[in-house]
Each structure stands twice: as C-alpha cells, then as structure tokens.
Write a structure and sequence with these properties.
Chain A is α/β, with parallel strands linked by helices. Chain A has helices spanning 40-47, 70-77, 95-104, 112-121, 137-149, 167-182, 194-203, and strands at residues 2-11, 14-24, 29-33, 55-60, 63-64, 80-83, 155-159, 186-190, 206-212, 215-218. Chain B is of the alpha+beta class. Chain B has 10 helices and 4 strands. The model of chain B has no long low-confidence stretch (mean pLDDT 84). Classes of the chains: A alpha/beta, B alpha+beta.
C-alpha cells in the first residue's frame, strides 16, 4: 500500500530524517511515536503525497509518487483517510457536509443513514448542522475522524487523533479504527499517548514505529 | 447531498472577489447594452436614410422671375412624361420656409429673397433614367437642376455603417475586458480560498471538481451582475426622452420592436465568457498549487 525506500526529508537545510524505509500493508496497524519536532507529521504528509521526499522513493498505492499526476494522486487520496492535527474543515459548511465531503466531492454516493450512523458513533449526531468554528477541540477531532473513515479507506492516517479527547472518547474512537483495521484498513497513528498504544496492542497486532535521531525504527516490545 | 449540489457550496459566498465579479459584470453589461443600442440605432438610421432618400428627389429651378412659371410648367411636363416618376409637386412657400427655418429661424421674409422654386418628386421603385432626365431637363428648362440626393445619401449611409463597425469593436473590447476582469477575480478567489483547495485535495477531489466549483460560483456571480447591469441599462434606455423630428434621426439611441430582445443575450454571453475565462484561470492556478 505504501512503501518508503531509503527516504530522506530535509526542511530548510536541516535533515528531518534520513534513509527511512517502511512498508504499510493492508490490514496492518502501526503507531508512530517520537519527540515533538522529530518529523511525525512530515512522515504522514509524505504518506499521503502532500510532500515529496528530498531523496529516496515512495510508492503510494502501487505508483511511484514522484511520477504521479495530480489525478492519480487524487485517486490515491480517495483511498486514504487523513486526520490532521488541526483537523482542516470548510468552515462555511456544516459538520455533516464536511464529514460527507470525501464522498460528495469525489462523485461517490453517500447515504444519509450512513452519515448519521457515523455521526452518532463519534457522538456528533446532535451537532450535524453546526458549523466547524462552533465545535470544541474534541468535537473537531471526532468530526475529522468521521470524515477520514466515511469512505471506508484502505489506509487511515491520523495525527494525534485523540489529543483533545477524554479517555472514554479516545477508547471509543480507537475501537472504531480497530474495527476498520479488522475489515482490512491499514492504520498509522502518530501519537504520544502510551495508554492508547497499550489499549490498541491489547486488541490488535499493533506495531510501533519511532522517529528519533533522524532515524525511523521499529520500537521494541517495552511498550 | 449530491456531487453537483456540494460543488455549488464548497466555495464560500463571501469575499472581495465576489464583489469584483458582480460589479464588473454589471458595469460591462450596462456598457454592452448601450453599445448594442448604438448599433441598433445606427442600423435604424442607415435604413431610414436609405429609404427616405432613395425614392425621393428634388428639382431646383433657378430662373428670372418672369421665366419662373414657364420653366416650372416645362419641368412638370417633363416629369409627367418620364417613366419611373410616380408623382411630383411644387413645394409651396410655407414648406420652403419650414425647410429653411432650421437654419435661419422663424418668420423668414421669403418674399424679399431670390428663392429658387423646388419641385419634390417621388420615384417608383425602378426609378427613372437619371442621366436621360438630366439631359431632357437641361434642354427644356436650363435653370432646372435634378438632385437625387445621392451625394447626401452615400456619406450618411457610410457613416451609419461605420458606427455599426465601431459598436462591434466596442463590444469585442467589452468582452475582452470582461474576460480579463473575471480571470483576475477567479485568480483572487482561488488565492483567497487556499484552505478550500487544501481540504478538497485532502479528501481526494480532482482538479476538475475543484475548478468546476470555482467556475460555477464565478459564472453564477457573473450572470447575477450582468443581469442587474442589463436590467438597469434597459430601464435607462426606456426612460430616455423620445426625440422628435430631425433630432430623432441624429441623436436618438435605443431599440425598436424586437430589438428589445437583443439585451437579453448579454447575461448568457457574460456567463459564457466568465465560464471560459475562469475555467482557464482555475486550471492554470491549480497546476501551480501542490
């Protein structure tokens, strides 16, 4: 699904990480950890093609990212659900319209019942017609996760998806991601939350990647 | 919600580019309607002058007072026997005074002036043999001069045709300026809605969906503005005071009958121009946005 082969990424003269290799297969579940500023968000952006590597090769949905056209990249992104740290909504559209956007903006059919079931699952059924600026931080993250999963993506990328949520809601959303994973979706979650990682490892074969010292490594079993 | 419906919603309805598109489309439509009115009026003028002058002619008799009646009778007889002349009549003093009043004012003492006699004649559609008529008149009544208005008609009709050409050039310029302004507005709209583009790309929308959303919005605004500008221009033309007499021929501007339908073409044409220019701009801008 996604293969990094010797990927390096530089930011304004400094190397964020070097020679990173990674393979995300369908049905895999990974966490991505590391200190702040280590490059977790950058690695996720490389995964969904927003950034190009400084060197090395990224294969995205079977295609070399460096030679993909914009249409090919759009097609690949239709199979990827992304939860941004800052969520990123269209502030003039309702929560329901934002959550349904991956379907409606790509010509796919969206059933109202599916949309409302999902909003109910993330606890936003009564906020469906609200505008994003009126949502709390936790509500925004739940809406972002709902938008990321509504199209049943092959790959789910989430950047600190539970950062503003209480433990109960964090577990609930993680269960949703685990359920998707059981159905074949590959999941990669960037997080600092060790409780979340432990909870996931108790329910699935989750592996932990760590960026540290400009290197991407598979973390040991201590977690 | 369908793809078509969301396409009309993803671009916010506010922003400076909204007013730029609406106001510029309104102004350009207003100007376009006036230029159309100018073209219509010049066409009316050309047709009117052509028709009025083509089938009438004048014979002017300049002769000593004692010969005037005799030469007038001779000319009338020549006209009566010339094929292609429908009828003829001598203009009376009051009619001649009315002709000169435009230039010399009222209460003109024509009796004290050495005025030529004027004979107005109406030609059949086939018209007379003008050269033959001139020869007969010079032989029968040496003081008679036949004037078929050609030297007036030709430059007037040419002037009207040139006015129509000027109107066409003005319309092309208006269309070009409209395209440029819409392209500018589309570019500004895309630049100020970077977040919209970013989110749409994040969820896998293709460039053609994003471009269509902006084009749809801009085309709607252009139609709205052009509709308003057209309606205002039509109202102004409708309210213009009607000019009578010679002034109507020289300064009247407006539409006649079915010509009032012409301005209704302005909003759809504006929408077409907005569609094409914003589409080209949108794809150009999106190509440059990663």
């Amino acid at each position: 699904m996604i293969v990094f082969d010797g990927v390096s990424h530089d930011y304004g003269g400094g190397a964020l990480f070097r020679d990173a290799s990674l393979r995300l297969e369908g049905g895999s579940f990974h966490f991505l950890t590391g200190p702040s500023g280590a490059g977790k968000s950058t690695l996720l952006k490389l995964c969904y093609g927003e950034l190009l590597p400084s060197s090395g090769k990224i294969t995205l949905m079977g295609q070399d990212r460096s030679t993909m056209t914009r249409d090919q990249l759009a097609e690949a992104r239709q199979r990827i659900g992304v939860v941004h740290q800052d969520c990123q909504f269209l502030d003039h559209l309702s929560v329901a319209q934002n959550v349904g956007l991956p379907m409606t903006a790509t010509g796919r059919r969206l059933l109202d019942t599916d949309l409302h079931d999902l909003l109910g699952w993330v606890g936003l059924a009564d906020r469906a017609e609200a505008l994003p600026p009126t949502l709390s931080g936790g509500e925004r993250q739940r809406a972002a996760l709902a938008r990321a999963v509504i199209a049943a993506p092959s790959l789910l990328l989430a950047d600190e998806p539970t950062g503003n949520l209480d433990w109960e809601m964090s577990q609930r959303l993680l269960l949703l991601m685990l359920e998707l994973n059981r159905m074949g979706t590959a999941v990669l979650i960037a997080t600092h939350d060790l409780n979340l990682i432990r909870f996931a490892k108790a329910h699935a074969n989750a592996r932990v990647l760590r960026i540290s010292g400009r290197k991407l490594t598979l973390a040991g079993a201590e977690l | 919600m369908s793809t078509g419906a969301i396409s009309g919603l993803v671009v916010p309805r506010s922003g400076q580019s909204v007013w730029l598109v609406v106001c510029s489309a309104a102004a350009m439509a207003f100007l376009a309607v006036f230029v159309l009115a100018l073209a219509a009026s010049s066409a009316q003028l050309a047709r009117g002058w052509e028709a009025q002058l083509a089938e009438t002619a004048t014979i002017r008799i300049s002769a000593p007072p004692e010969d005037m009646e005799m030469q007038t009778a001779l000319v009338l007889e020549v006209l009566r026997t010339t094929p292609g002349i429908a009828d003829s009549r001598v203009m009376d003093t009051a009619e001649q005074a009315a002709l000169l009043e435009v230039w010399l004012g009222p209460d003109l003492p024509l009796d004290t002036l050495p005025m030529p006699r004027l004979i107005e004649l109406r030609e059949t559609p086939e018209g007379p043999d003008r050269q033959g008529l001139r020869l007969r008149l010079s032989a029968e009544a040496p003081g008679a001069v036949y004037d078929d208005h050609t030297r007036w008609r030709r430059p007037l009709v040419q002037a009207a045709a040139r006015l129509q050409g000027v109107a066409l050039v003005a319309l092309l310029l208006i269309g070009g300026v409209t395209c440029a302004i819409i392209a500018l507005a589309a570019s500004a709209s895309l630049a100020s809605n970077g977040q919209v583009i970013k989110v749409l790309r994040l969820v896998g929308a293709r460039d053609r969906f994003i471009a269509a959303a902006f084009v749809k919005r801009i085309s709607q605004l252009a139609v709205l503005g052009a509709g308003g500008g057209t309606a205002l221009a039509m109202a102004v033309l409708w309210a213009l005071p009607e000019l009578g007499g010679a002034a109507a021929h020289m300064a009247g501007i407006g539409f006649d009958g079915a010509e009032w339908l012409w301005p209704l073409l302005v909003p759809p044409v504006a929408m077409g121009l907005a569609f094409l220019s914003s589409l080209a701009t949108a794809f150009h801008v999106l190509r440059g946005v990663t």
